[in-house]
Structures are given as C-alpha cells and as structure tokens.
Amino acid sequence: MTNELPELSVFFPFWNEEKNIDKVVTIALAILPGIAKKYEVLLIDDGSQDNTREKAWALAREHKFVKVISHTPNRGYGAALRSGFDHSQYEYVVFTDGDLQFDFAQISKFLEKIIDADIVIGFRKKRRDEKIFKRLLLMNLLKIWDFILFGFYFRDIDCGFKMFKRSALEQIAPLRSEGAMITTEILAKATKKKLKIIEVGVDHFPRQFGKQTGANLFVIFRAVLESLTLFSDIKSKRF
Fold first, then answer.
1. How far apart are alpha carbons 176 and 179 in whole angstroms?
2. Sheet holding 92-96, edge to edge
3. How far apart are CA 228 and CA 86, in angstroms?
4. Which of 229, 184, 6, 213 is closest to 97 using CA atoms?
C-alpha cells in the first residue's frame, strides 16, 4: 500500500486492557507506514486498575511514534476521546477502541472516503458483543432518542471506529461529554454545522479479553443526563 495521507494521528482509548494493548499497538505500527508519511499513535489510559498504564509506557519507550496520555482516576469514555482529540497534532485523526473488536487494517475503507468527507464513521455490519440482545436494544433506543432530540439518523451511532479532518474537529469543539454520549455529541454538533458525514461498514469481532462496560446502569444514566445537557446547549445556542 502506498502512502495515502501526508500525516495521521491515531489514538486508542484503554480501560483495563492489559491483555490487548500490546497487540493493538503492534498491529497499528505495522500498518501505519503504508498509509501515512507522518504519523503518531496516542495511547489514552483512562485510569486503568490493571497493568495497562505500565504496558503503555513500555510501548512508548520502545517506539518513538507512541505517546501516552493517562487519566487518574477513571473519567469515562468521552473523557478518553476528548484527550485523544486534544493531544492529536496532525491533519487527519482516527480512533478505534483498544479492545481488538475492530480490525485496524480496515482503516483503508476510511481513507477511501475521508478526502470527500469531513467525518467518516463506521457501522458494525454484524455485532459480536456479549449480551447481544441487550446491546441491540440499547443501540436502537439510542437511534430513536437521538432522532427525537437532535434530528439525525445513523446506522451505528456509537461504533468505536471514526475518522476526522482537523477542520471538522475544530468546528465541533469544544466537546463536553465525559461518558458514552460523546458519540452523540460529535454527530449532533457535526449535523448542526452541516458537515459531510459518510458511513462505512466494518467487521466486528468478539472480545477475547477484558469486560465490556457500555451497558451498565451507571453508563446509561450518565448518557441520558449528558444528552439532555447537550440538547439544552444546542437549543440555547451555547454551541
């Protein structure tokens, strides 16, 4: 694969992913030289309680393109994404979750679209989550909720594989969500700014190590509160 982008920032949010982080970074570093002339890899440790942070720093010492941003204590998925956006320095920015449920090689699908878009978002062609019925129910309820509050519809709002132009991030800043509602905030603000958003299908794989947390009651309750705050901000033109 020839170089396709002049520069690219990649970041991965991690929370207790000690069994995944080495492979995540190894895969990314093998692919990046073929798709970008300049690149960086940011490892966002969101207050992990296992050895994720130590492994992240070891990877940063071993590879000059790898940097670590660490939270203490755990703040939430939205906070991890915000740190990734804030510390990314290049013109194109992509993130994917650090749990190996996505194939980073499928970034090629995003590269094909990003030149003609402001944001490219993945949708999972077939979800491979634990407790799949509950996950699909929550996903569809989120679609309805976001359509009612913000007037947009996408196939997979919270898919953890998205790519941005720097100019798009600047237009939707500042992001406020600390939890899972960060993806709704991104898409609601991008829609309000009339940014061009393209969806691409990606494969989704079962989690081999670690535990999923997105469907617990605290995460859901926090997401509802954050979405109501976002609705208020947009309606009152604070954004």
1. 9
2. 66-71, 36-46, 5-14, 92-96, 161-165, 119-124, 197-202
3. 24
4. 213
Would you list the DSSP string of 92-111? EEEEE-TTS-S-GGGHHHHH
Both tokens assigned to 150: 């913000």
Give 39-95 pLDDT, tens digit per residue.
Answer: 999 999 999 999 999 999 999 999 999 999 999 999 999 999 999 999 999 999 999
Q: Tell me if 196 sits within 8 A of 119, measured CB to CB.
A: yes
Cα(46)–Cα(68) distance, rounded to whole angstroms? 11
Buried b (16+ CB within 10 A) or exposed e, 199-234: bbebebeebeebeeebbeeebeebbeebbeebeeeb
Q: What is the pTM of this model?
A: 0.91
Alpha helices in the chain (DSSP H): 21-31, 52-62, 77-87, 107-114, 132-150, 166-172, 182-192, 217-235
Three-class DSSP category at 125:
coil
